[in-house]
Each structure stands twice: as structure tokens, then as C-alpha cells.
Amino acid sequence: MARDEAPAQRAEKKRSGLIGTLLKLPFTLIWIVFISMVCSVVIEWVGIYFGWFSQSGAEHARQTMMTEMGYLDSQFSQSLLVSSPVEFATMIVDTCYEWLFVKSGIAGWIEQGADAVGWAGTLKTYLQAAMFVTLMTLTRCVILVLTSPLFLMAALVGLIDGLVSRDLRRFGAGRESAFIYHHAKRMVTPIFLTGWLIYLSLPFSIHPNLFLLPCALLFGLMIAIATGSFKKYL
């Protein structure tokens, strides 16, 4: 009797674990965006303090934000998710700017203290840099949302390739490796989330394709390896 119940219990645990992972995914993504935003602001502040950037004050953050918005305007004129990607991105960024900086009074204080000196001028510079970095991070978040079909396509291609490899191994009497399967399975989610975290936290501007394409390729590869090394008989 215990032997009959064991497979059912394991299957129930797997279903519960999958449902729990899907439910936690939105909160995990929000947490990653928050951590990335904090890391980006801290890196920018440290760079201003130690003079890492050639631009003075918050100019580096402003130029980086403008470059990211330029990528969004020129490279994402079409999308599978929304009919007008640029208008969608502008609406998201403007809404966040309104609630985070205008209604809180930060933007108004920065404009009023444009000629401030001393500690007030320093505080204005750091707040202005934080504002630009936050808007840059939000712009990158919109880019990630618009490029999410790329990761879905990579996952689908990896799944199909893995299933084909599994069938070839199954009918060709290939060897199984639980070690490869479990390690590839564990790497799928970290690769996806770590790629988001690094991209959102970069203190300099980078073309989205230079970073997201390798991440999507590695993401699909891990899915293909995990699927292809799955046990031959259920």
C-alpha cells in the first residue's frame, strides 16, 4: 500500500511545486526590478563620488537614460504584445515619473534648487542622478517586457530540440545522466532571472540585442539539455 501511495505523493508534490513557482514568479520579478534599481542608483552615486565618469554630476545618468530611450524609440517600433510599443513605453515611464517624482515633490525641489551650492547642491545632484537612473531602469523593464517573446521562442525551440534528443536517446539505447538533468534544470531559472538582474543594473548603456540574445540562447540551451537528458521511461 505504501508503495502505491509513494508515486502519487511525489506527483502531488511536483504539481504543488510547479504551481507555487508560477505564483511566486511575478513577486520574484518585482523584487528583481527593485534590487536592480537600488544597485543601479548605488553604483551611480559611487561613480559620482569617486569621479568614475567623464561627465560631471548627474549628466552621465541623464545621457545613459536618453540613450536607452533612443534604443526603445528606434529598435522597438513593432511588437507582438502591443500595437504601439513606443506609446506604451512612454505611458509607463511618464506615469511612473509622475507618481514617483512629481507628486512626491522631488522633481519640483530639484528644479527650484538648480543653482544650489554646498550640501544642497550635492544633494540635488545625487537626487537628480537617482531620478535619471530610475527612469532608465523602468525603460529597460519595458524593453524586457517587449522582448519576452524572444525568451518564449527560445524556450519553445529548446523544448522541441530536447524532446527530439530524448526520443533519439530512448530509441537508440542511449545512456541516461541524472547529474546532467538535475544541474541543467537548476540552471534554467537562475539564468533567466540573473540575466534580468544584470541587464537592469548595468551602469552604462548597452544595446539590448548584445545582452538579451546571448541570454535567450543560453536559456533555450539549458531547457534543451534538461529536456533531452530527462529519463527515458516515466
Automatic annotation (TrEMBL):
Tell me the superkingdom of the source.
Answer: Bacteria
Membrane-spanning segments: 21-43, 142-164, 184-204, 210-230
Key words of the record: Membrane, Transmembrane, Transmembrane helix
Annotated Pfam families: DtrJ-like
Q: What is this protein called?
A: TIGR03747 family integrating conjugative element membrane protein
